[in-house]
Design goal:
- By secondary structure, the protein is mainly alpha-helical.
- It has four helices and no strands.
- It has helices at residues 14-27, 52-62, 65-74, 83-111.
- The radius of gyration is 21 Å and the shape is elongated.
- It starts with 13 loop residues before the first helix and ends in a 20-residue tail after the last helix.
Length: 131
């Protein structure tokens, strides 16, 4: 069984998202596993918390793909193993993206263009490009 986490950074701050994932990591020790069933073989390992590297991988996998691409573009030769450092880097990426979006919206307003114009096909009245 696998779970795909997706963090909506438009609704949840990076600090909240990372602290929730760290808290979930701490709770892993208390979840039932096959090791707790009667008659389970001794070879089954106990559930362990994720180490810092694994947790950073999970956090990066949970953020939106645009934020992932921005992170890898800014840090092509490194991958942090410190959760707090990763949180700070993701917060900076989010702030930079928000400032860039605001500048773009201001340019649109100065140019007199509509902000969210959708091009539709006249025959079917459906969008030509998916949003």
């Amino acid at each position: 069984m696998s779970i795909n986490l997706v963090l909506n950074l438009d609704r949840v701050s990076v600090l909240q998202a990372v602290s929730r994932l760290c808290e979930m990591n701490n709770m892993l020790l208390y979840l039932p596993s096959l090791k707790h069933q009667e008659g389970s073989p001794e070879i089954i390992p106990k559930v362990q918390k994720f180490n810092s590297f694994e947790l950073c991988t999970i956090i990066l996998g949970a953020v939106p793909q645009k934020a992932q691409r921005m992170y890898y573009a800014l840090h092509p030769e490194e991958f942090t193993c410190d959760v707090d450092q990763l949180r700070k880097q993701l917060e900076k990426i989010r702030d930079d993206h928000a400032a860039e979006k605001e500048r773009f919206n201001q340019l649109l307003k100065i140019a007199g263009l509509a902000q969210k114009a959708r091009v539709t096909c006249a025959a079917t009245n459906s969008p030509l490009f998916s949003q």
